[in-house]
Known about the structure:
This protein is mainly beta. The chain has helices at residues 3-29, 146-152, 348-360, 366-370, 399-402, 406-411, and strands at 83-84, 87-94, 97-98, 107-113, 118-126, 129-136, 161-168, 173-183, 188-197, 203-213, 217-218, 224-231, 242-248, 253-256, 260-261, 264-265, 274-283, 288-297, 306-313, 318-320, 373-380, 392-393, 413-423, 426-436, 442-454, 457-465. Among the domains are: 34-179 and 198-209, no CATH class; 346-465, Nuclear Transport Factor 2, Chain: A. The protein contains six helices and 26 strands. Strand 18 and strand 19 form a beta hairpin. The model is unreliable at 11-86 and 332-344 (pLDDT under 50).
Amino acid sequence: MNKRIFFSIAVLVFISLAVAAFVMFDDSGKNKEHEDNYSSTSRAGGESTGPDNGAKSVSASGEGSDAQNGQDKSESFYDSAAETDGCESIKTEDVKIIGNSPEYDLKAFLCLDSKGENYLSIEYYLDGSSTVKKLYGKDIPELNDIFAKREGAAGKRDCYRVKAIYLNAVYSKAYIVIEEEYFKEADAARTSVYAFNLKNSSLKKLFSDIGRFIDMQFSKNYKYMGFSYYDNPASSVFQENSLLEIIKCETDESIVSGSRSKGEIIGGRSGNEYVYDYVFLAWNSGKVARLSETMWKKQGENEEKKKREVLYDVERNIFVNPDGSAAKEENAPAGSSGASENKSNESEAIGILKNFYSGMASQKDYAKAMGLLSSEFTLELNLLKQFGFNALTKDDIDLETASLYSELLKSARLESILKEETAGKSSKIYFYQSLSLDGETRFTLPMIAQLKKENGAWKIFSAREGNANEPPFSAAGQ
């Protein structure tokens, strides 16, 4: 049996076993009784609510931010006959869950009961038992009259909704994103973020401001959560157009708030001659974020803005090079030894590798990307071993076979180049690649590519998963 057919069968068997296991888990868990409803009283001043939690909330300046990237409206209303505390739910709306896991199988619903109260119902499994928690307006003020406010804002873009809940299964946290009023003139919404602890039912407000919200992303180890939002300087205490937020998930502490760490602009920037905009792009490692930086002089209204990509170590509060060493501070991106990549100094081999990744993500350029591979090309990923393969060849990676894992291949992104070793007509490139298995949560892999020059053209001979605990990946903090 050839590798393509065997791989197809292996994938189908693997999916069948996974589905069967999930069904068994689901049936056994749902026979257990629900726990009591969440009903703790929130404290004044935005403090945490819930048992055994007296921590005060952490919030940015302002009132709320906006999230825009490809979100579902989740408008699936239906009549509910469920009785809760003698009060019937008369309107129910599904809430989108991002990063769900079989362990928790989290579900959430925005509801209106017969008494006219709005609440958020969160259902999940905890230690194998089915659990239901309810959060009312006294817990999350943004929920008060949320359906009625939406009807009053008819004709406006999506607003007054629980936009999504991001699950961090490692720390048993559900991060709730609520959008309120939408401001058309600024293309921004008032948005708040809450952290709900699935184990002890504590609730903490983390963030609130007005802007265009960029979706949250967890680091590979789920220790940190990062996002950014496009601010409206006219309604903010900050001059920046885009602000960065980094949350430490274990404690729900703001490591970076409004692009500032401990009150100062990130990275230990000296002086106040420049304004810096930061847009969160991805996690380059467990503690290093990849950001887009735009800078301009405060007094130079007509000066051209300068843009580059940088790597930011959230634990050390410094910008770093791809190898993890501290980057030299430069006002202008040109000539910087930081994380930005200067295309004029970029080798031809690195350009070929980048073209391959961009082509794989495009149906139009797929054939061109395949043409960059040598006929001897092999791909080695640890996840292939569960299907019984040590490597795939170029013949295996054709359109027919690729369709079996097309979502995985289409999600592949070249995140950053760490190092290149060249010897004559041979180049070895160390880099990070990110993938997504569910279309939402991305994870990063250390990779090593081998390229050779044949008949005057560079070809990719191999790509294999590297060891995160060995240089240069270990030095980069992966």
